[in-house]
Design goal:
457 residues; alpha/beta; 6-stranded mixed sheet; 16 helices; globular
Length: 457
Amino acid sequence: MSVEMANLVTGLRSFYRSGATKPLNWRRHQLQQLLSMTQTHQQDIVQALKLDLGKAEQESWLAEIGFLEDDINHSLKHLQKWTKPRKLSTPMVAQPGSSWLQPEPLGVVLIIGAWNYPFQLLLAPLVAAITAGNCAVVKPSELAVHTSALIASLLPRYLDRQAYAVVEGGVQETTDVLTQQFDHILYTGGETVGKIIMKAAAEHLTPVTLELGGKSPCIVASDCDLDVTAARIVWSKWMNAGQTCVAPDYVLVEHAFADKLIQAIQNKITAFYGHNPADSDDYGRIINPRHLARLQSYLQDQDVIFGGQVDEQQRYMAPTLVRNPAIDSPLMREEIFGPILPIVSLDNIAQASDFINQRAKPLALYLYSRSESLQQQILTSTSAGSVCINDGMMFMANPDLPFGGVGNSGMGRYHGRWGFDTFSHLKAVMKRSTWFDVNWRYPPFSAGKMKLLKMIK
């Protein structure tokens, strides 16, 4: 298999070196083809996501299909602008002359997708790679079986096979592809595999972008709009049955306000998914039995105050609230990545910053409060990949905002121009004129030349 993989990457590299991927018209055509694929096969994509994760059609469109379409259209709109040289100032000492950054593609890149949003998290980075003029190998998650198979079937029918390839499979295939030399690797997933990716990349000194998730806190102050806050927490937590890297992982709230917030969240869960979410067409399923068992283990010896029901045959876990879990329990140490929301009570909301800072830096942080001073205090005293004030996950809807982690939650960023830059080398260029050449920098040196040099600098 490794010989076959080596031949695959060699073929892509040969095509890249031909220069075929650099013309903007070629890149536009590939992006338009990817858009056509997404629009033409929307129902096939919806069905695959339904089989893999139980996703509702509207949720699939919002977070996967529509998201990708917007990303493609945004890239098509800005392609010419992004690829232009970026002018910079030139110091007096280098005049007459000009300086600029010239974007150029990296070459052949590897994109490894995640199973929770198996369509969007694989193909949105590919949009950036195409826009920047690269060839790419894309590796769908083997856990999302139906979506992986659909992408492997469709992509070669729409994109240039000499430039883009799909590699399906599990651990062995991923191991094989990681032995090859790439010009950049983008991986979305967990911290454990992220370390494996980074170690493999180090063998070839390959730069990486790692989107790794983490425990994203949600701070709720008593001055929030309770009804809106509850609705937005429930939407952002239980979309995709909680299997979202930027979903709120736990809530921090003052003791005195906790009961009101819990009741409001319970009311919204019922309003969104009914009294029995297992019967709701809008509520998803856990990806596989292993992950369901992991989630069930988190509930052992916990104060489950809402939900907790499980149907192993249906891969179902109800929206679940846990009150004040032990801080050293697996529920509070590990990323939940499922439909369990711990509610942690504090004496004072001002303690939230210290609570968050005692843990690894999260991928996202949420704050619900009308207080400008509290908003600024949280922004300046905590670190997170992204912050959203008075909503959940909506920063993902802005293509001008970069997406990426910090610390253990990841490195590098993409979306919009940030993705273009990730898959580009911004080549530093200076151009000098020869019509005017002062001899101050040439030997033999003298006091006069030194004086002139200091004046120019």
